[in-house]
Amino acid sequence: MMWDGIALFSGAPVRRSADGVLGAAGVPPVPEPERPRRAKVGLALGGGAARGWSHIGAIEVLREAGIPIDVVAGCSIGAAVGACHAAGKLGELREFALSLTKRRVMGLLDFHISGSGLIAGERLRRLLERDLGASRIEDLPLTFAAVATELGTGHEIWLTRGGLVEAVRASYALPGIFDPVKIAGRWLMDGALVNPVPVTAARALGADVVLCVNLNGDMRVRGTVIQSHGAEGADAVMEAAAEAAGALPEEPRRWPRIGGRRTKPKPRPEAGAPSGIASVMVDAFNITQDRISRSRLAGDPPDVMINPKLAQMGLFEFHRAEECIELGRQATKRLLPEIHEMISAAVTPV
């Protein structure tokens, strides 16, 4: 046996084993205690357009707290922020986000009518290439995956190798807004259509503890089921109420005179009525992400979910980066004790 670095034996012949450990003849050496293995931490970054700047704040707080990130799975804007973090370019992305104004955001959008989306995305691609260059996913210092959706089949595609910039572009190619991106024979579009918060990907890529940033967790509108609704409903009730109150049809003589003629004024838009194609697309995207996120997270919940307070943040308000980053920081700081506890509990022997 060993005592303060001196080998002490009781007369038995001493032998040196093949691995250099001293021991008495016929007595196997006492194995050293196993060292605990640090739990691998995975980060799932969800989609949500401009709200995704809060991912920057969340990652900053985790780094400041000394929490290592071994796996990143990102979707849409989450793929863009996650890629910049994995490539060591999060600081550059932060500076870019804070420099955005409404006018500069519009200047980055190269509109066209000949493609399958409103925006070609070439200006954004050049920006990504400026900071990420020719980086490849398999060469990154941590495990990374960008989630995309295959056009036509609806397959959920995990981009885990190849060009980093193209993977990010495919992951945020919102249908109708950006043109789909072709990678290895597949046309790909926004991964938020199938997996808005890719917890499953982070866990499958080897993470023992998965933290997720859900950009839609603070949405105040939660859809439900209206079990009976028909064409005759609110309109009939309103007409009956007007008749009971003695309301009469508006007479032409009361109409305003325009150009010498009385013209019936245009009716005011109904409350809640669609106000344009952009508004309809944003609402549809919000509803889709909310429903799919709730379903996917219920089936495979993260170990800790970070929900920044983003209800008042518009999907395309990219110029509000400072506020959004701070909301991400605040939400993550509140959960640091829980995150540390979860990681400590997941430590396992080698």
Summarize the helix and strand pattern as letters: EEEEEEHEHHHEHEEHEEEHEHEEHEHHE
Overall average residue pLDDT? 81
Computed Rg? 29 Å
Helix content: 25-40%
Q: Examine the coordinates and then state which fold CATH places here, giving the name of the CATH topology of the domain at 41-219 and 287-346.
A: Cytosolic phospholipase A2 catalytic domain
Q: What's the total count of β strands?
A: 18
Structural class, by secondary structure, is: alpha/beta
Count up the helices.
11
Motif (GXSXG): 74-78
Family: Belongs to the NTE family.
InterPro entries: Acyl_Trfase/lysoPLipase, LysoPLipase_patatin_CS, NTE, PNPLA_dom
Active site: 76, 190
Describe this structure in words.
- By secondary structure, this protein is an alpha/beta fold.
- The protein has eleven helices and 18 strands.
- The strands form six sheets. Strands 6, 7, 9, 10, 12, 13, 14 and 17 form an eight-stranded mixed beta sheet that branches. A two-stranded antiparallel ribbon has the order 1-2. It has a two-stranded antiparallel sheet with strand order 3-4.
- A hairpin with a 5-residue loop joins β9 and β10.
- α1 crosses α10 and α5 crosses α6.
Descriptive terms for the model:
18 strands; 350 residues; eight-stranded mixed beta sheet; Acyl_Trfase/lysoPLipase; LysoPLipase_patatin_CS; two-stranded antiparallel sheet; alpha/beta; Cytosolic phospholipase A2 catalytic domain
Set out the fold topology.
Layout: E1 2-3, E2 6-7, E3 14-16, E4 22-24, E5 36-37, E6 41-45, H1 54-64, E7 71-75, H2 77-86, H3 90-98, H4 102-107, E8 117-119, H5 122-132, E9 143-150, E10 156-159, H6 164-171, E11 176-178, E12 181-183, E13 186-190, H7 199-204, E14 209-213, H8 234-244, E15 257-258, E16 261-262, H9 277-299, E17 304-306, H10 321-334, H11 336-345, E18 348-349
Parallel strand pairs: 6-7, 6-14, 7-9, 8-11, 14-17
Antiparallel strand pairs: 1-2, 3-4, 5-18, 9-10, 9-13, 12-13, 15-16
